[in-house]
Amino acid sequence: VGVGDLGLAYQCLKVAVTLEPGHGEAWNNLAVLEARKGNLAEAASDLGAARAGASCAFEPCFNAALLAYKRGDLRTASEMATAAK
């Protein structure tokens, strides 16, 4: 396994969320990989699952804010950034 093997990381995260659908951190990391691949709708969906599974973590809200900003949805970006505090 090489450092930075995003393909393997993607596969492992898919397995993780299949085995534990409520694992918010895995959903968050999967969303980041989806966004890097350009699948913004899938990333947004994954971030929704991440926020539900890891309600006390700030990363899903921060990443959702960044994704909304990239999509041009400034209102949602502001709301998510505020929720990330």
Describe this protein's structure.
This protein has 5 helices and no strands. Helix 1 runs antiparallel to helix 2. The N and C termini lie far apart (36 Å). The mean pLDDT is 94. The chain is mostly helical and 85 residues long.
Order of helices and strands: HHHHH
Shape: globular
Low-confidence runs (pLDDT<50, min 5 residues)? none
* Tally of individual helices: 5
Strand runs, count: 0
Descriptive tags:
single chain, 85 residues, mainly alpha, 75% helix
Summarize the structure.
With 85 residues, the protein is mainly α.
List the helices and strands and how they pair.
Blueprint: H1 6-19, H2 24-36, H3 40-53, H4 59-71, H5 74-83
Helix pairs in contact: 1-2, 2-3, 2-4, 3-4, 4-5
